[in-house]
Amino acid sequence: MPKPEILDPQGKAVHGALPRLGFSGVTDVRQGKRFELELDGEITDEVLAEVEKMAETLLSNPVIENYTVRVEAPSDEVGA
Amino acid sequence: MKVGVVTFPGSLDDVDALRAVGIAGHEAVALWHGDHDLKGVDAIVLPGGFSYGDYLRCGAISRFSPVMTDVIEAAGRGMPVLGICNGFQILCESHLLPGALIRNDHRKFVCRDQRLRIENNRTPWTSAYAEGDEVTIVLKNGEGGFVADDATLDRLEGEGQVVARYLVDNPNGSLRDIAGVTNERGNVVGLMPHPEHAVEDLTGAGTDGLGFFTSLVERAFA
């Protein structure tokens, strides 16, 4: 996600469009990115640390973006 | 001097940059993103364009090109490096320059002749100008908003690392009207406007951009 202090022009555009469609009560919109990484084997602490490194090195730019890493089992989607 | 211009997949202004280098009296050397070879150049230009289609973030993928390892190493030794537009974005993603460039605050692509003030003529790319010179250089970008936290901005201002500032009308929401910055050492410069498009009277808004390329010579013989 763009850091709170960083202007998010895309989020602003979406925020502007919502009332035009009759959706009210939204006070702010921020637009970010979501990456789904599929990994081999068990998600150990070492694997998670590696994913954190990927997030920090390539997937995000720490100067302007924050990130969080979340583990989901494949069955989360299949079973839904 | 031998001045290299790197072509990335999606670079647009590499040929214009090579041409500008030649017009300024240097030997222009084409460099390739996939090579670990700087071909013995004395200075490097990272040109404008949309490398890797601006996927992920502008410059984020180019930053990990093989040639960038060599560019970063050369910059560390003090070699002059100029990043123009997409090249500026690549330098920020490489952490060779502070800050980042985000989508224009008005969300539209902007293409126009831009008035600028040269704020720092102590870099190898700006020594042909006088400090305070006002010039007109072409600007064209969709993600040219320069941002950094307040502490970084204060430091850039305090240390004289702001190289150029937008005059009249800020075209993209850049904080403190910053159009270009340099690193602490002063050898790496990033600039959002395109001096390589302002080197001949036949085209464009004049020749105000030529100084970015002739500066290298004047420094060498200084």
Automatic annotation (TrEMBL), chain B:
Pathway: Purine metabolism; IMP biosynthesis via de novo pathway; 5-amino-1-(5-phospho-D-ribosyl)imidazole from N(2)-formyl-N(1)-(5-phospho-D-ribosyl)glycinamide: step 1/2
Presence of keyword Ligase: yes
Catalytic activity, EC: 6.3.5.3, 3.5.1.2
Active site residues of this protein: C85 (nucleophile), H194, E196
InterPro entries documented for this protein: Class_I_gatase-like (IPR029062), PRibForGlyAmidine_synth_PurQ (IPR010075)
PANTHER family reported for this sequence: PHOSPHORIBOSYLFORMYLGLYCINAMIDINE SYNTHASE SUBUNIT PURQ
Subcellular location per the Swiss-Prot or TrEMBL entry: Cytoplasm
Keyword field contains Nucleotide-binding: yes
Catalytic reaction list: N(2)-formyl-N(1)-(5-phospho-beta-D-ribosyl)glycinamide + L-glutamine + ATP + H2O = 2-formamido-N(1)-(5-O-phospho-beta-D-ribosyl)acetamidine + L-glutamate + ADP + phosphate + H(+); L-glutamine + H2O = L-glutamate + NH4(+)
Gene designation: purQ
CDD domains referenced in this protein's UniProt entry, alphabetically: GATase1_FGAR_AT
Gene Ontology cellular-component terms listed: cytoplasm
Record protein name field: Phosphoribosylformylglycinamidine synthase subunit PurQ
Subunit structure: Part of the FGAM synthase complex composed of 1 PurL, 1 PurQ and 2 PurS subunits.
Gene3D superfamilies: 3.40.50.880
Origin species: Nocardioides agri
Record Pfam families: GATase_5 (PF13507)
GO annotation (BP), single: 'de novo' IMP biosynthetic process
Keywords annotated in UniProt: ATP-binding, Cytoplasm, Glutamine amidotransferase, Hydrolase, Ligase, Nucleotide-binding, Purine biosynthesis
Protein's job: Part of the phosphoribosylformylglycinamidine synthase complex involved in the purines biosynthetic pathway. Catalyzes the ATP-dependent conversion of formylglycinamide ribonucleotide (FGAR) and glutamine to yield formylglycinamidine ribonucleotide (FGAM) and glutamate. The FGAM synthase complex is composed of three subunits. PurQ produces an ammonia molecule by converting glutamine to glutamate. PurL transfers the ammonia molecule to FGAR to form FGAM in an ATP-dependent manner.
Gene Ontology terms for molecular function: ATP binding; glutaminase activity; phosphoribosylformylglycinamidine synthase activity
